[in-house]
Write a structure and sequence with these properties.
CATH topology of the largest domain: Ubiquitin-like (UB roll)
CATH superfamily of the largest domain: Beta-grasp domain
Bound molecules: flavin-adenine dinucleotide, FE2/S2 (inorganic) cluster
CATH class of the largest domain: Alpha Beta
Strand order of the largest sheet: 1-7-8-10-9
Largest sheet: 5 strands, mixed
Number of domains: 4
Strand content: 15-25%
Structural class: alpha+beta
Distance between the termini: 63 Å
Low-confidence stretches: 1-5
Mean pLDDT: 95
Number of strands: 21
CATH architecture of the largest domain: Roll
Length: 490
């Protein structure tokens, strides 16, 4: 069996406090493979700076930073919400907490520049949010020199502060981030890189089998597929930003997990004249950087998707496979006419996203399959592709409804192709087929749009829930069509 020769023991290794830390799950009863990084840190005597606020990725009090080896064997730093990350997910990475920021190597104990700036800007009151905010500022400091206000706000979107107000915190960010990321971590970087290389040199699947749980973390896609065939009921995780909630909010025991977060073959972004190929394991934040000038509607979507902490781990594969009626990428992928490459250990197939979504959280995926990549045809310059999200807040909010639109007009402004795909209007992402049919071959003119809005108003039967009444969803849906018209009619 290929797998048995490659199975690694129940051990994970990562760096904490500058040293390799090892957890052997076969020797501990206190830690489970699905223990979150937050709960692990809180169990240590000297890492209690990290806080739990919500245990669902919303408040940012649990923010820590991961240092990872990038393709150039340098360290890159990213924030994560530790309440949603399982311990094996940090194998082969450096875990940095607020306790690590002070520089203790000098004779004096020196605050990190971001800590110093937050103190000077009066950026903390009760202090509950402060360790999380410091960690977001730390990652900002390492990644950006003189960041714009937009970049600072984006870095802080995932950190709630109920008492200080954000201006002093933004002031601190502006004050601190002027030193090209140089700090005591810079000095220690070569040492940490060597340690990480040592941990990462083995390409074996981590296999943690306890009395109640099985957790596999393959490095190769082929191994992941063999595992999926062996354990068809195992939950696939990538960023775990959906799945972890089953444990943190519903207290479910996750019995079998195949964690794809270390499978590099799923982290690709490729393009050619015709199409973009996006690996389902690439984080949404990396996709955001890649699509900025290439697929502007996708970039617009990712600007209002969750928070930086979530986008740093969450993936496109996870959003698609969740098949949530309000999954944000789905309406846009419908508009792009995206195709999915689906793979199992002895077969590969392609499927349009519209055929993949079958119902409420229901997809065409078979138990032994994994979605490998998403293929987006490079839109023609004359095609208009738009994405709109309606939510109660702009930042870190789940959609009330969202829409992905595609429009192609001929030179006389006749509608030659139109896709109107909505999320949040039905049990799953759905195109407004009757409205599309009415508009096809009509002129792109206001009176046709108004008639189409009437059809659209009746086309869906949305539910009323905590986010919106059905009536307001219907009105918003037709108004989004009007918005498309107003933005494109000239
Ligand atoms: C605070 C917070 C904010 C959020 N905001 C948004 C938002 O604004 N918009 C939005 O749409 N969603 C949002 N989400 C939901 C979630 O972050 C996204 O759906 C995300 O894309 C899931 O990706 P993941 O890699 O974390 O998925 P995971 O939790 O790892 O997996 C989700 C599902 O997909 C399956 N899966 C994952 N990868 C594959 C694969 N390659 N092949 C087959 N199956 C696979 C898993 O088995 C699981 O069923 C939010 C979540 C949180 C916690
Ligand atoms: S505890 Fe609130 S985001 Fe983790
Ligand atoms: S200082 Fe009290 S929540 Fe931010």
């Amino acid at each position: 069996m290929i797998l048995n020769s490659k199975l690694h023991k129940s051990i994970i290794r990562f760096i904490l406090d500058g040293k390799i830390k090892e957890i052997d799950f076969s020797k501990t009863t206190e830690l489970r493979p699905t223990t979150t990084v937050l709960n692990y840190l809180r169990s240590l005597p000297d890492h209690k700076g990290v806080k739990e606020g919500c245990a669902e990725g919303d408040c940012g009090a649990c923010t820590v930073v991961l240092g990872e080896l990038n393709e150039n064997n340098k360290l890159s730093y990213k924030t994560i919400t530790s309440c949603l990350v399982f311990l094996p997910m940090i194998h082969g990475k450096q875990l940095i907490t607020v306790e690590n920021l002070v520089d203790r190597n000098n004779k004096k104990v020196l605050l990190h520049p971001v800590q110093h700036a937050l103190v000077k800007s009066n950026g903390s009151q009760c202090g509950y949010c402060t360790p999380g905010i410091i960690m977001s500022l730390f990652a900002l400091y390492k990644n950006h020199n003189n960041p714009t206000r937009e970049i600072i706000e984006d870095a802080l979107t995932g950190n709630l502060c109920r008492c200080t107000g954000y201006q002093p915190i933004i002031n601190a960010a502006q004050k601190a981030c002027t030193n090209n990321g140089i700090d005591h971590f810079t000095e220690k970087e070569p040492e940490i890189v060597e340690l990480l290389k040592q941990i990462n040199k083995e390409e074996k699947t981590i296999s943690i089998i306890t009395e109640t749980q099985k957790y596999f973390k393959p490095r190769l896609l082929s191994e992941a597929l063999v595992l999926k065939r062996q354990y068809p009921n195992a939950l696939i995780i990538n960023g775990a930003s959906e799945i972890a909630l089953k444990q943190t909010k519903k207290y479910e025991l996750l019995k079998e997990i195949i964690d794809l977060s270390d499978v590099d073959e799923l982290k690709i972004f490729k393009e050619n004249d015709k199409e973009f190929i996006i690996g389902t394991g690439l984080s949404l934040e990396k996709i955001k950087a890649n699509v900025k000038d290439k697929l502007p509607a996708f970039y617009d979507l990712l600007k209002v998707f969750a928070s930086l902490q979530i986008r740093n781990i969450a993936t496109l594969g996870g959003n698609i496979a969740s098949a949530s009626p309000i999954g944000d990428t789905l309406p846009l992928l419908f508009a792009y006419k995206a195709k999915l490459k689906i793979i199992c250990s002895d077969n590969e197939r392609s499927l349009y996203i519209t055929d993949f979504i079958k119902g409420y959280r229901l997809t065409d995926l078979k138990p032994d399959e994994i979605i490998k990549s998403v293929i987006i045809h490079r839109p023609d310059k004359k095609e208009i592709i738009k994405y709109y999200k309606v939510s109660k807040r702009k930042d870190l909010d789940i959609s009330t409804l969202s829409a992905g639109f595609r429009l192609f007009l001929d030179k006389d402004k006749n509608i030659k192709e139109i896709i109107l795909a909505y999320g949040g209007m039905a049990a799953f992402t759905k195109r407004a087929c009757k409205t599309e049919k009415f508009l096809l071959n009509k002129k792109w003119q206001r009176h046709y749009i108004e008639k189409a809005m009437e059809i659209l108003y009746r086309e869906y039967e949305p539910i009323s829930d905590a986010r919106a009444f059905a009536e307001s969803r219907r009105i918003a849906a037709k108004n989004l069509l009007l918005k498309l018209y107003s933005e494109t009619s000239h």
